[in-house]
Amino acid sequence: MNRLIRTRLAVFTAVLLCAAPALAGTTDFPATPPAPGPAPTLSLPTPSSQTLANGLRVVSIRRDGLPLVTAELLLRRGIAMDPPGKAGLAKLTATLLTRGAAGRSAPQIAAAAEALGGSLDADADWDHSSVGITVTTPKLPAALALLAQVTLQPAFAPAELERARSQALDDLHLMLSQPTQLAILGAGRAVFGDGAYGHSPAGTAASLKAIGRDDVLRMHAAVYRPDDAVLILTGDVTPAQARALAEQSFGDWKRPQTPLAVAPAGMGKSQLPAVLVIDQPGAGQAGVVAAHAAPPRNDAGYYAGTVANAVLGDSYSARLNEEIRIKRGLSYGAFSVLDGRRGNGMWLAQAQTKNPSAAKVVDLMLGQFARLGQAPVPADELAARKATLIGSYGRSLETTAGLADRLGALATYNVDLAEIGRYIGRVQAVTAAQVQAYARAHLDITATHVVAVGDASKFGEALRNAHPDAVRLDAAALDLDRPSLGLGQAKGTGF
Amino acid sequence: MRMRRASWLASIPLLAAMAGTPLAAAELTVPPIPYHQRTLANGLEVLSIEDHASPTVAVQVWYHVGSKDDPRGRSGFAHLFEHLMFKSTAHMHAEQMDRLTEDVGGANNASTGDDVTNYFEVIPSNYLQTLLWAEAERLSNLNVDEKNFKSERAVVEEEYRQSVLANPYGKLFNAIDPHSFTVHPYKRPTIGSIADLEAASLENVIDFHRTFYRPDNATLIVAGDFDPKQLDAWVDLYFGWIPRPATPIPQVTVHEPARTADKRYTETSATAPLPALAMSWLIPPARDADTIPLQVAAALLSQGESSRLYQSLVYRAQVAQQAGAEVDARVGPGLFVAYAILASGHTPAEAEKLLRAEIGKLADEPIPAAELDKVKTQLLTSELKGRQTAQGKAFGLGQAALIEGDPARINSDLAALQRVSAADVQRVLKRYVTAAHSVTIDYLPQAKADGKHRGGAR
Q1: B439 touches chain A (CB under 8 A)
Q2: Which residues of A touch B381 (CB under 8 A)?
Q3: Domain A48-250 carries which CATH code?
Q4: Does the pLDDT at position A8 exceed 50?
Q5: CB A101 within 8 A of CB A120
Q6: Which residues 75-104 on chain B approach chain A with CB closer than 8 angstroms?
Q7: What are residue A278's DSSP bridge partners?
Q8: Chain A contact for B216 (CB, 8 A cutoff)
Q9: Which of the two residues, B342 and A487, has the higher pLDDT score?
Q10: Cα separation of B25 and A449, whole Å?
Q11: Considering only CB atoms, which chain A residues are within 8 Å of B252?
């Protein structure tokens, strides 16, 4: 805590003593809000999709007005491809793309990208990897040439691997010091067990040290190939320009003879108890996460799930934040994410709270999970949360980067890109009965995993009173490489 | 908590040299933002930007009150008050602002800085009239009760814990203002302290609203899909009646004296995995012509992986995992801040040596023209990105009007940016940084801080 304030302004004190002006007292000011006018319609963009001879798909949306374009090369494989014991490889491979390529050093590539006004952002997510940049229109050809160089001709120099490895290790320690981040990692293990979606995306201290240059080369060969790639261009660019620029930069990219890598199964067998406490002595707050296995992105109930999550925790006014923050002041924010991936997915709720309230927040979360399946969402609430979703969707399409994100999310899972124009109608069509059925099927609290990370001396007992099967693990004993997180193997487990 | 940095908007030509490509060489002109300005009889300033690109409208009300105006013994109060503006008024129940925004496809939020507090919404354009009414209502008729006051104060305390205690480097960044200013109320962190928040009362809320929330202390900004005549009529109807109080608006007039010596402090953290270091220097107010050259200097030092600090501390020496420099320009005196979060096995002293060396080199050795061009292109591109939405333009206008003191700055800053020379960068760096006195904070993980001589910088 910082110092208290002792000094203050004399002028301020004087004014506080003055009589208040009469602010109210008009007779004309209406006592109720004016009704809205007729609703405007949002015009949704139409994507254009083309395929080059080497299999590269080129997707674009034209948005003129400002001379800006977002260019992103998306590869349809990501973190899920990390081999056992090599957690963090997909992210490290993406990072290394820009650290030297086509005869240019890492500093030279950064300087080239930044002279164009943008920065090259390369990263991997569960089911895709990407490298992208946003620049003014005249810089686009040079930006695409750079994207092609780092994707096709990365050097993967040993010195850069070492540098990226030590940066990744420091980043990992930083992440593990944050209670909710650690709880999310624990929840991934709890839900997916030894499946491909269960490991630590940023790696572990042991796995990062085990990664060699050959691993990086193998990952690059498996993931970065034109017949599994999508070039996304959004902004001030026509479909014809998109195709010509794609040919110019990526036309020579050879399609490999080998078949596409098979994505490993995301779901495995869980080895963790329903309620896990990770003790982080001295933590400033507790991070509370409740997670559940969920259907894949391509599930027929995708929009029912989207609306169900909107009711549960996708916005300020959704139920989790209403119950945990607005009504009780227990957190700065409580939210949920429904993350449909390939084959399966995860539904995850999160909140940070002062240590002594962690057990209370767990029960409030589980209570909201149960409630969504128990009764249909009232019509007013359903309409409000659909409006929130649709409004947020419309705003996300206002920027070139937002458009590229939406297209990328569809292209990753091979969803028809025309869905971008159907979203509003699909959301509107979801009924309260569908939301309830979805929650009943996919939010069963007897199959929910709870992970609470924080100073367990302040909430462990309360949590165990409510959940006698809860198990405690010391953060220091945590082994993220094991599906059990080291429970039962290390000291400092149990209660 | 900080507000956005100054904007870089104006009309400038961008020369393209990409002949022979499908997007043939073309000269780009970034048009100025055409805004309209008027002031009501009660002192309310109204700024508007018509833009029909999307059927939405951004409504923002900026008040000239921030944490520098926190009452005595009530650090964090302006920010707590901001949260309470979403509670009940004479004609709205608690959270009705959410009903009028989120529930109809809009969004809302607010932020508190040292100098200003702003409330902002984006809504489908048919709700403009509704939101103008609602903003006028909470300006004139706030009516918070004890129960809502207490539950929202608990939320703000959780915000404090989340941003200061649970964030591994939160305590460091929260300590910069208290150590950087000696007498100016900027020395109090915007988020305050748990003890001061606990001491706040409902009576403080009523006093604060009466003192600072008045039409002559506010700027209404509307950007997006509206009809200008209709807007004027609605603004007159809902805001025009609100009386201008006869009392003067309290102003902070404290003069922060120039520093006479370098100072050094140590902060410790129970949760930070690695040490860090932050340094600050005093700079002039945001309206000063030297602000833009200082921003160019900060960008040369820290924007992107080709920047000097990244190349020196993170890439070559590998003593830091992150390094940065920024201009925190305010209505009053601001700060030039440089910082580093260390890589494993390194000490704040190593980072400090390199930070000072890079700043010194930038101040004293020739700056290549290509590097200066790079930074201007980066700043222009990020400004263009911000201008894609009505809300982005409204923020730019608010920043220009309230922090820089003139809405016209939204269009003149970018021209000023284009004129910045290497000599300007070196002149301002020498004047405010290398020839001035620094405040340095060593930030040490607690266990390692026990022995006085470990990890600390000289």
Answers
A1: no
A2: 68, 117-118, 134-136
A3: 3.30.830.10
A4: no
A5: no
A6: 75, 90-92, 95, 98-100, 102-104
A7: A453, A473
A8: no
A9: B342
A10: 57
A11: 9
Q: Which of residues 296-335 of B touch A (CB under 8 A)?
A: 303-307, 310-311, 314-315, 318, 321
CA-based nearest residue to B277, from B99, B78, B439, B395: B439
The answer, for B238 touching chain A at a CB cutoff of 8 Å, is: yes
As beta bridge partners, residue B46 has B38, B220
Q: Which tens digit of pLDDT belongs to each residue from B64-104?
A: 999 999 999 999 999 999 999 999 999 999 999 999 999 99
- The minimum CA-CA distance between B203 and chain A, rounded to whole Å, is 11
Tell the burial category of B120 from Cβ atoms under 10 Å away from its Cβ (0-12, 13-18, 19+): buried
Domain spans of chain A, in order of start: 48-250, 275-477
At B2 the pLDDT is 33
Mutate to test the interface with A, among B138, B158, B204, B227 (most CBs of A within 10 A): B158
* Residue (of B332, B297, B336, B334) closest to B405 by Cα position: B332
Among A32, A104, A114, A377, pick the best mutation site for testing chain B contact (most B Cβ within 10 A).
Answer: A114
Q: Above 50 in pLDDT, residue B122?
A: yes
CA angle, residues B149, B152, B153, in degrees to nearest 5 = 80
Mean pLDDT of B203-217: 96
DSSP B142: B
- Residues on chain A touching B306 (C-beta within 8 angstroms): 107, 110-111, 113-115
* CA distance, residue A385 to nearest chain B CA (Å): 6
Q: What is the CATH architecture of A275-477?
A: 2-Layer Sandwich (3.30)
Instruction: Say how many CA atoms lie within 13 Å of A340 toward its Cβ.
Output: 19
Chain A residue with CA closest to B77: the answer is A5
- What's the mean per-residue pLDDT of chain B? 91
First to last CA, chain B: 31
Q: Kindly list the structural domains of chain B, giving each domain's residue range(s) and its CATH number in brackets, ordered by start.
A: 33-239 (3.30.830.10), 263-449 (3.30.830.10)
Q: Quick one: pLDDT at residue B19?
A: 29
- Does any CB of chain A come closer than 8 Å to the CB of residue B207? yes
Residue A14 has pLDDT above 80, yes or no: no
Tens-digit pLDDT profile for residues A160-211: 999 999 999 999 999 999 999 999 999 999 999 999 999 999 999 999 999 9
Residue A395, amino acid: R
Question: What's the pLDDT at A491?
Answer: 56
Question: What tens digit of pLDDT does each residue of A211-244 get?
Answer: 999 999 999 999 999 999 999 999 999 999 999 9
ipTM: 0.91
Is it the case that residue A443 has pLDDT exceeding 90? yes
Per-residue pLDDT at A121 exceeds 50: yes
